[in-house]
Amino acid sequence: MANSEQEVLSGLAELINEETGLPTDQVELDKSFTDDLDIDSLSMMTIVVNAEEKFGVKIPDDNVKDLRTVRDAVDFIVKQG
Amino acid sequence: MSESTSVVITGVGATTPLGGDAPSTWDALTKGVSGASLLPYEWVERFELPVKIGATLAVEPDQVLTRQEVKRNDRSSQMSLIAAREAWADASRAAELEVDRERLGVVVASGIGGVTTLLDAYDILLEKGARRVLPLTVPMLMPNGPAATVGLEFGAHAGVHTTVSACASGSEAIAAGVEMIRSGRADVVIAGGTEASIHPLPVSGFAAMRAMSTRNDEPQRASRPYDKGRDGFVLGEGAGIVVLESEAHARARGAHVYAAVAGVGITSDGYHITAPEPEGKYVSQAIGFALRDAGLEPSDIVHINAHATSTPVGDIAEINAIRAALGSAADGAAVSATKSMTGHTLGAAGAIETIATVLALKNRLAPPTINLDDPDDDLTLDVVRVDPRALPEGDIAALNNSFGFGGHNVVLVLRSV
């Protein structure tokens, strides 16, 4: 199942909103998960696990630490899809 | 007792089936309102539970907490956070509560812990596999989770503790907080209890032991301590938290003081895992210890918030124990069984009832015991019925009794200031 960049971005924004309450329009490609969106490692793991189900992909734990920005995550998921 | 080891209550907070805070809960208690209703959960029918009633929170936690606070805390922790914030703000009412965080302790009890988190996580494990189990599952299900949440919120460094003694847990937490201050480990302790166990598994378990009322067609009349028609408790949920402070600390900052926790009495039955020791010997002893600790005489006690869960055996055993401990002075005490209104909130009960007792002393008003239509023939004490009763002016004192499965007996003596 292929996911477009826009679909993944808006889908991730929904997952982040669900986990943290952050408005979806604040989830932009160049934002850092930790510095800009204030998402800690526990929330990140929850978002990753939910993203795996939502987009039908696998995001191994070893790759999660490389997902620093929203763009990193979107690219990873688009490639996997 | 010196001011440095005398312990006072300077703030109260609660979220209960009667109200989202302590004042609304107190208001409902004095008006004789029941918090029980038909349980609004589909699992009641799905599992064909014999018990279809309970006392759920009056105000849902997601109405007062942020989404993240709700997601990251078990319901029991959510409730402890709400009650602790209210208690802290209340303690800051007359004068800002400032305390060296290395002298701030926390004791928050739970009888059962994060049971909903635990069982929901198990469902996810079975249905979706280990990968889908949330990373916060363990800190959310651990029984010290609510205490940890409160400790984190207020940056407490003098120790964060959890007492787990079934339905005596909430009172035992306050007793433990008193000891922290008396021993010099803390100036201020946030103490109380919380419970969120209205889940099909605990309900099934309590129902299996026939401990709960099945008066499903009359939820508000189901919790009826001392009444001939009582048939068990109504399960409730909630949290009660108080701010305990050394009297010296409270006086120095000009705090508003509700009452003193003047005495603590703790004993254990060593008799049976669930049944109370029938003679009430160790309950009576705990009352005696608490009075001695407070330096008071039986005749000083004008009010008792009884444990009184509305089970056929428990209520009268407690009455007999009170009579044994206080003798003829028991006639001078107005007895309230507030579980008739709140339901039985297990690990939170002792804390919620401590707050009820403190507010009774402060307002000079003993709450009623509702549903006492046809008193048990063995009821020998003066139970307040229907309308609240005025308490005397001057220096007065009250008992709060709490007992739990496992034979735990905790008695607190509260004294007006």
UniProtKB/TrEMBL annotation, chain A:
Keyword Transit peptide: no
Positions of post-translational O-(pantetheine 4'-phosphoryl)serine modification: S41
Residue span(s) of domain Carrier: 3-81
A biological process term (GO) from this entry: lipid A biosynthetic process
Principal subcellular localisation of the protein: cytoplasm
GO molecular function terms noted in the UniProt entry: acyl binding; acyl carrier activity
Domain EAL: from-to ranges: 1-81
Keywords attached to this entry: Cytoplasm, Fatty acid biosynthesis, Fatty acid metabolism, Lipid biosynthesis, Lipid metabolism, Phosphopantetheine, Phosphoprotein
InterPro entries to which the protein is assigned, alphabetical: ACP, ACP-like_sf, EAL_dom, PP-bd_ACP
Localization, UniProt: Cytoplasm
Pathway: Lipid metabolism; fatty acid biosynthesis
Classification via HAMAP family: Acyl_carrier
Function: Carrier of the growing fatty acid chain in fatty acid biosynthesis.
Name by which UniProt lists this protein: Acyl carrier protein
Species this chain originates from: Motilibacter peucedani
Automatic annotation (TrEMBL), chain B:
Key words, A-Z: Acyltransferase, Fatty acid biosynthesis, Fatty acid metabolism, Lipid biosynthesis, Lipid metabolism, Transferase
Known pathway: Lipid metabolism; fatty acid biosynthesis
Pfam short name (any one): ketoacyl-synt
Keyword Transcription regulation: no
A GO term from the CC aspect: cytosol
Gene3D superfamilies: 3.40.47.10
Keyword Chloroplast (UniProt): no
Family annotation (PROSITE patterns): KS3_2 (PS52004)
Primary role: Involved in the type II fatty acid elongation cycle. Catalyzes the elongation of a wide range of acyl-ACP by the addition of two carbons from malonyl-ACP to an acyl acceptor. Can efficiently catalyze the conversion of palmitoleoyl-ACP (cis-hexadec-9-enoyl-ACP) to cis-vaccenoyl-ACP (cis-octadec-11-enoyl-ACP), an essential step in the thermal regulation of fatty acid composition.
Protein family per UniProt: Belongs to the thiolase-like superfamily. Beta-ketoacyl-ACP synthases family.
Protein name in UniProt: 3-oxoacyl-[acyl-carrier-protein] synthase 2
